Amino acid sequence: MKKVSLKKIPIKKNINLGLLLTTILVLALCVVIGLILSAARFSRNPGPTYASATLELTFNGAAAGTSPNGVEFDLRVLESDEVLSAGLKAASLEGAYTPEQIRPCLTVRGVYPDSMAQQVLHYESLLDFSSSRELSVGNYHPTTFHVTLTNDFDESIARNQLTALLNGIMEACRRYFTRVYSYGLDPDSGVFDLDKYDYPQQLDIIESRFNAVSGYARTLYKKDPAFLFRGSSFNDVDVRLSMLLESSLTRLTASLTLNGLSKNTERLLTQYQFQVHDLSIRRDMLNQELDKLDEMITSYEKHEIIYLPTSEALTKIDGNSSATYDTLVNKRKSISDSITELNTRITNYSLRIADLNSTGALPPNAAVPNPAEDGTADAEGNEAPAAGHTPTAKEIEEAERKREAQRAALEEDIRTLVAEGEAVISDFGEMLQSYNEQQINESTFVISEASYRRPRLMSKSFIMQAVETTGPIVALGFMVCVILIIIRKKKEESGE
Amino acid sequence: MDKNERNDRREDLILPENRDSRIQVVVNQQQDDSAMEIDLVRVFRNMKRKLRLYAWVMLLFFVIGLCAPLLLYQFNRKPLTVSSVVTLDYNVVERNSDGEIVSSERVRNLTAPNGNSLDLNRITASNVLQAALDGLELSHPVSLTQLRDNIRIERILSKDSRRQQEIASSMIQSKNSGAYSQVQSISLTYTNQFVVSLTNGFGSKGSELTDAELRLVLDRVLSAYNDYLADTYADIRLPDDEFSSIDIEKQDVLESLDLLRSAVQDLYDFCAARSSSIRSYHSWNTGATLNDLMRELQTARSVNVDYLYAYVSSNSIVRDRDSMITSYRYQMRRAQTTLDALNENVATIRDILSNYQNDQIFVAGQEEDAARSISTTTDYYNRLIMEQANTYDRIARQEELIADLQYKLDMLNTAEAESIGAEEREAILEELSEALRVCKAIYAKILAQLEEIYTSSFFSDYADHTAPQGQTAGFLSAAAKKMVIGGAAGLVIACGLWFLSALALEFRSKEQEEPRKETAKQ
């Protein structure tokens, strides 16, 4: 027996070697067939080329979805005509393609936490005391965005052109963002031509403009009190303008009011009288309405609220009388406030009329009505020039010269006030520019260089496709080989 | 001897002490005392002898076990579902009967911007889906019905509602008596977020969308829904350009000024009716807010319009006095008619209120003497009261208008009123022209400001959505668990076959030994 087995050993080895070689050959053949099939499939539909870039936002408020000027930003601006046109221009492709062609090929995708939908739907039971009660993702705003420009619009576009186009679009987006999501200031002083107006009106216009800018600076100071530009904060702008309003403007207003300075005193008087008349009508009507409303409030059937105790809870019985009553009272208060405001304005106009009368600014033949007729009196008790006294020509000339000098001084003061105010506003404009640059710049609006991707035989997508195609063929081949080996082994056993 | 008796006797048999490694097997019950003993040691020896063969068999079955799930996965692949979280982002505005904003609050639940309940089914409305698919080039055509069928919307209950539900549920489980009244009092509220999912179930295999396309479609659907909300609810009206209708050459001075005053007031009221967030928005271009522009309009009214109006109306400067008097008389008559109608309305309401009977409610206390009767105001009664208050308001405005018209008529009718000279008229027309220019310039600024706001996120972002998430798992990772089970099952089957083959060999050898034993006995 031993001799026989010794003789068979070399034959067995040859058989095993043959089987091994056959198996390797079959497997190699399967791999080759699989790869050829994969390559054929891939070359038939390789997919478009594309350029991609990443955008990271790190300015204040980016994580809350708000831009530096406090408005919610929207990165769909990347697809706007303005940005796409600027991008095409930057890549010197403005004549070759239109924004309409590029827009469908551009995708902007924010990076969100994984499984956000599941996290939002997740609920931790109140009765489960072991739960960690972590905050859910809630209203998440991404700060990183992947921007992809897929080349579906022109197969012949070169690699550098595609990347240049995406870089141009991203840069245009940054410029657009810097402009639209920042704080601006109109350097134009407004629609009014000051010289065409009388002095009190000029002061009204100046006050309106300064108040608007001052309020703007105040808002920004509340938002960012730490910001400094050349050692000044937004609060300094507010303070400087407030000082101008409180000191210079008040001084000028006092001067022109008490001296009755005007380019056309008669017209000014007419306006004041008209205002008093107009406001008085409104006040009287509101007073009538107030009386009727008071009657309603008195006669309103306001009822008690009853709570009935039951076994489980208290039941409320109420006919919403409180809510209606409160609305009526609120309405009454609002009317009452309006009347107070109207009274204040009427008093102001009446005082101005009295000032015009008392300063002798009106020409002797001008009809001067008594402001007391309108139900108001001169608060300071000033009286009009005594009737019966006729000024001499010299007195009139002297008074006129004096008034001319006062007018000239007033005009100079107004010009100075405007110049000072505009200087503050100009400083504020520079400060805003600096603030905007600090908020949105290359380190807070980070754009990566666009990278070009072309589906290749060594790309991930091809490898996946090759594994999917070759895998089953190799598995099948391997199984066939194993079956052959088993048959051979079986025969060997039968032979033994 | 029946079968049971034979089995009983065999149970009574005692196995030899040293033969406990042998299993007594009844091979054929039809034959008398045909019990066959199998020697496990020999079976395992047989298995060992067949090891080389069955190692390959095991490998084959193991590979089949691994490959079968992969093959099945290719045919029964689960379609991909992508999901996106949508967050409603707007103000819910409450207006009174005059259209004025009473309150404006950030949305907290599924309420539409106008205060009504938001219908989420509009996401799958044909116009929204069509807008989403317009201009979209997909690898396979998708119909609106298919798209609608594959979209799922999940609302999210607020935490309070869920906990109320949870507590009521535990009360019901513990058979608490108050559980059912507790359940009845639960009002479910949903948060301002919801999840929209799209499943890739567009027809047969091979005609499905790619993962990227599926995500793109969901993204487009939600963007189209956002646009639908903006189109439906965004109040992007611009103020009417009343200034253009003023023609100072053709109209009388006083008439032009009346129109100018009215246009300025209407523009101011329009701006005042915007919400506070819109009025306080700083323009990126000018830095101004709508409040600033309203203040500028007030200044223009004071220094331009009223200044001129006071002079013109006080001095009755008109081109055609008779025509103006006729016009004002007609306006006066109309205003008086309206005032009479309003007064009648007030009288009617007052009559109704004086006779109106509010609800009488009998309250029965637990004790007899605690019972009492009270009356409460009904909704209708309160509505009448508010209507009366609003009518008083309108009456006051109408009376103010009448007083103003009366003043103008008085001024026109005074003896001193005379026609003005050409030079003065020229100066007034120039002043009027300047006032009109200023007002038009402010109107243009307001228009630009509103257009800027309307194109900003205030009016474009109503439903913010996250990027659609969801990815097809790789075919290896998706079938990994099944592959492990398949591989193990293949090994078990191969082992079973191995054992059976060894057992078969043992039977065969027993069968061969039987004739020899019988021959030896004989």
Summarize the structure.
Chain A is 59% helix and 7% strand. Chain A contains eleven helices and seven strands. In chain A, helix 6 runs antiparallel to helix 7.
Strand content of chain B: 5-15%
* Neighbour order of strands in the largest sheet of chain B: 6-7-3-10
In DSSP terms (H or I, runs of 4 or more residues), the helix count of chain B works out at 17
Using the alpha-carbon principal axes, give the shape of chain A: elongated
Stretches of chain A where pLDDT falls below 50 for ≥5 residues?
1-7, 366-387
Oligomer: heterodimer
Number of strands of chain B: 10
SSE arrangement:
The complex is a heterodimer of chains A (496) and B (522).
Chain A: H1 2-44, E1 50-57, H2 81-90, H3 99-102, E2 106-110, H4 116-121, E3 144-150, H5 159-180, H6 199-223, H7 234-258, H8 265-299, E4 306-309, E5 314-317, H9 321-358, H10 393-439, E6 445-447, E7 451-453, H11 460-495
Antiparallel strand pairs in A: 1-3, 1-6, 1-7, 2-3, 4-5
Chain B: H1 3-12, E1 22-25, E2 36-39, H2 40-49, H3 51-75, E3 81-88, E4 91-95, E5 101-106, H4 126-133, H5 144-149, E6 151-157, H6 159-173, H7 179-184, E7 190-199, H8 211-233, H9 253-272, H10 276-279, H11 290-314, H12 321-355, E8 359-363, E9 372-376, H13 379-413, H14 422-455, H15 457-460, E10 463-465, H16 475-478, H17 480-521
Antiparallel strand pairs in B: 1-2, 3-7, 3-10, 4-5, 6-7, 8-9
Helix pairs in contact in B: 2-17, 3-17, 4-8, 9-11, 9-14, 11-14, 12-13
